[in-house]
Specification:
Elements lengths: L28 H5 L3 E7 L6 E8 L6 E8 L8 E2 L7 E6 L5 E5 L22 E7 L7 E7 L4 E4 L5 E8 L6 H13 L13 E2 L2 E2 L4 E8 L3 H4 L11 E3 L7 E7 L5 E9 L5 E9 L5 E5 L4 E8 L5 E8 L9 E7 L5 E4 L7 E6 L5 E6 L7 E5 L7 E3 L5 E7 L5 E8 L2 E9 L5 E4 L10 E9 L5 E9 L10 E5 L16 H5 L4 E5 L9 H5 L8 H14 L10 E5 L1 H12 L6 E4 L5 H7 L3 H4 L5 H7 L12 E6 L7 H13 L11 E5 L9 H18 L12
Parallel strand pairs: 33-34, 33-35, 35-36, 36-37, 37-38
Antiparallel strand pairs: 1-2, 2-3, 3-4, 5-6, 6-7, 7-8, 9-10, 10-13, 11-12, 13-14, 15-16, 16-17, 17-18, 19-20, 20-21, 21-22, 23-24, 24-25, 25-26, 27-28, 28-29, 29-30, 31-32, 32-34
The structure holds ligand LN4I5W3F.
Length: 708
């Protein structure tokens, strides 16, 4: 598979724009949305089969469908597509014998007792069907159907134990009742939910209609029992049935299938919850609390192959003045004792795998514009992390059973994604043949740095168009990342600087105060002071690149989404140095935001009254003189639409001149969420941003996208 062919064409007036052959994906938005995107990796228990998911544009070009591709872990054979259906496939996990379980919306045979549970339930568009692709060959066949779908499938590596998780309706005692209630609600068109706890929404969907339920069973595999596998949640063991909505997530299963580690939420006063780690015995169902502490939460657990150790992250609760800390927490199952690992390591790590002898732990952590893999030797006293990989952000990291190599998807802002094998001793990378090859971006990615007024180093990436030079300097676009506890270190299809580079801009991607990968002090510097150091760091980074010969001294433009949108709004109210500002899914009135965002209690320690009084962008509404493009999706529950509506109303109500000459625009998506994910809307998003930036720079009039 390659990206859509690059053909240099000029659009004639008569031609339907959709008929014009595709150009480069970094310049032609139709080619951009049609470019396949790498997803996550799955490895078989014996290490012989590595899969990667690939997201491709669907036939209507209004969504993406994912399929699984088979990779040769040795790197010899090319990638080949393993699953193919119009509806796509998602969840995937190997049984130890090699059978692959996956979910797919592909048409399943009619419901009969023969093939699945709950035969009284008519097939529906809300069905989730799990399929098995037998290792010995042959067609995939359905093994379970469930109205409402599945959350996860987690097989043990060296036994027949398999965990299934699915969302159950609160108040229903078992799977039968759950399925009946779902059917009733559907037929009566009931969508109402009753809440008695917090939170009630998450990113773009409602909570309250579901709680995670956990089931365990033994699946021998089709090769072993010479028959088809069947899973019926009514007939298998439900674990922690009394946990109700306290069961948070299923994090890991022991290789021998004897126990699993799950997150358990305990409701706390003032709407808080605290997640602890609980071990559940898959046979007896007994539970043991493995990690629990006031003022801290635990997650991302990994179990050592010998089953003696659990490592997770421990994140402390922030206060008004102290940001959270993230550390590794090592639990010795024999003694039940837990301790911090690599306490002095000033990074926020996340565990990914243990070596086969359980003596080395592999983790990833943001570091200085990368998110590399580190190895931590657990046998010595020091637990000193050793950086294994160089540039790039490594995700979906899996260890080969022999322990000699890790597999990962590596991305950076110079690379949309490669599949790599990492030597666990030398850290050497080998590229594996990937289902997707991407064309080179239309420029260079530079690592640049400057000093803030207080002497602190601020580093950034600068995406520079190929032709930029002292003779042809490029106009500058400042991009501000979200979070704010994050870093511009991994490729993003949503925030892709190369699309703007192809329009001639140089794009600056700074990591200001609050960014991850530079240590705790760097985060603390901006904590509760959003309009102070994070803002002045961004300005310092902008000043420094404006001095470069290849950068035009014209007024730059600025853009940011989410927290980056907060900062875009703050910039608008505190400087007139930008020609135009794009504010996507932005925080405008912090006083309102902290109570209406989906998870307000996360923000409350930092967004206290004092911080809100000092740093809410809406307080500087009178000072905004820069044209703004406001963009918001109505289904954004992280930064609710009220923030975008408030910003828009305040901008418009301050415009005293000719209404026809309002300098601002509002691009509103009634059915998009925080990210604007559908491909057709991504096109509208970029087209509108391009046109707005062009107009504020005086390069032409603002032109509506032809579909607006
Ligand atoms: C619970 C919570 O709010 N977590 C934050 C990481 C978060 O979602 N922040 C948003 C306001 C934000 O800035 N998100 C960024 C990562 C984005 O680009 O969506």
């Amino acid at each position: 598979m390659t990206t859509p062919e690059s053909v240099d064409t000029k659009q004639s007036d008569e031609q339907d724009p959709d008929e014009v052959p595709l150009g480069s994906p970094w310049a032609d938005l139709r080619a951009y949305i049609a470019t396949p995107r790498l997803g996550s990796l799955v490895l078989s228990a014996d290490g012989s089969t590595l899969l990667v998911s690939v997201n491709e544009l669907d036939h209507e070009q209004t969504g993406y469908r994912s399929s699984w591709w088979k990779l040769d872990p040795s790197g010899a054979a090319p990638a080949r597509r393993l699953t193919r259906s119009v509806e796509g496939e998602s969840l995937a996990a190997f049984l130890p014998g090699g059978d692959l379980i996956f979910s797919s919306g592909r048409p399943a045979p009619p419901v009969t007792k023969e093939y699945g549970p709950n035969p009284e339930i008519e097939p529906s568009d809300q069905d989730g069907v799990l399929w098995c692709l037998p290792v010995g060959g042959g067609e995939a066949y359905p093994i379970a159907r469930r109205f409402g779908g599945w959350e996860g499938v987690l097989p043990a590596r060296r036994s027949n134990s398999v965990l299934f998780s699915a969302a159950g309706f609160p108040g229903t005692a078992d799977e039968k009742q759950d399925q009946k209630l779902r059917k009733l609600r559907k037929s009566k068109k009931i969508s109402a939910l009753l809440h008695d706890s917090y939170p009630v929404r998450y990113w773009d969907h409602d909570l309250g209609g579901s709680e995670t339920r956990l089931y365990a069973t033994e699946l021998a595999g089709s090769e072993v029992d010479h028959g088809d596998l069947r899973v019926d949640l009514d007939k298998i063991t439900r674990l922690m049935p009394d946990a109700g909505r306290r069961l948070d997530d299923v994090q890991a299963i022991a290789e021998d299938g004897s126990f699993a580690v799950v997150g358990r939420k305990t409701p706390k006063p003032r709407g808080k919850t605290q997640v602890s780690l609980v071990e559940v015995d898959l046979v007896s169902g007994e539970t043991i609390v493995r990690a629990e502490a006031e003022g801290a939460e635990f997650g991302n657990a990994v179990i050592s192959p010998d089953g003696t150790l659990i490592v997770a992250i421990r994140e402390t609760e922030p206060t008004a003045t102290e940001p959270p800390t993230v550390r590794l927490w090592l639990i010795d199952r024999a003694t039940g004792e837990g301790r911090v690992l690599a306490e002095d390591w000033d990074r926020w790590p996340s565990p990914v795998a243990f070596s086969p002898d359980s003596r080395t732990l592999y983790v990833t952590a943001d570091e200085d514009g990368d998110s590399p893999i580190f190895a931590i030797d657990l046998s010595g006293q020091g637990a000193e992390p050793k950086r294994l990989t160089g540039d790039g952000a490594f995700s979906s990291v899996l260890l080969a059973p022999a322990g000699d190599r890790l597999y990962a998807v590596r991305t950076s802002y110079a690379d949309p994604g490669s599949i790599v094998a990492v030597d666990t001793v030398s850290g050497e990378l080998t590229d594996l043949p990937s289902p997707v090859t991407y064309p080179e971006p239309p420029g260079q990615l530079l690592d640049v740095e400057t000093r803030a007024a207080d002497g602190v180093r601020i580093r950034s990436y600068l995406a520079l168009p190929s032709g930029a030079s002292a003779e042809h300097p490029a106009p500058l676009a400042l991009w501000i990342h979200g979070g704010p506890l994050s870093s511009w270190n991994a490729w993003s299809w949503r925030w892709n600087p190369w699309l703007l580079v192809s329009q001639g801009y140089a794009v600056l991607l700074p990591d200001p105060a609050l960014s991850t990968g530079y240590g705790q002090d760097f985060i603390r510097r901006g904590w509760g002071r959003w309009g102070a150091e994070p803002f002045t760091d961004l300005m310092a980074a902008t000043d420094a690149v404006l001095e470069r010969d290849e950068i035009s001294s014209d007024k730059p433009v600025a853009m940011g989404g989410s927290f980056g949108g907060y900062m875009a709004n703050w910039v608008a109210g505190h400087t007139d140095r930008f020609a135009g500002i794009v504010s996507h899914a932005s925080l405008w009135n912090l006083d309102a935001f902290r109570y209406t965002t989906d998870f307000g209690v996360y923000w409350l320690p930092e967004l206290n009254d004092r911080m809100v009084a000092d740093y809410s962008p809406h307080r500087a509404a009178d000072d905004i003189r820069t044209p703004m493009l406001v963009i918001h999706g109505d289904k954004d529950y992280r930064v609710p639409i009220s923030e975008g509506l408030g910003l828009w109303a305040e901008l418009v109500s301050r415009h005293e001149g000719d209404p026809e000459e309002l300098p601002h625009k509002f691009l509103y998506f009634p059915d998009e969420n925080h990210w604007v994910l559908s491909p057709q809307h991504a096109i509208v998003w970029y087209e509108t941003v391009w046109s707005f930036l062009k107009s504020v720079r005086g390069d032409g009039n603002f032109e509506r996208s032809r579909v607006l």
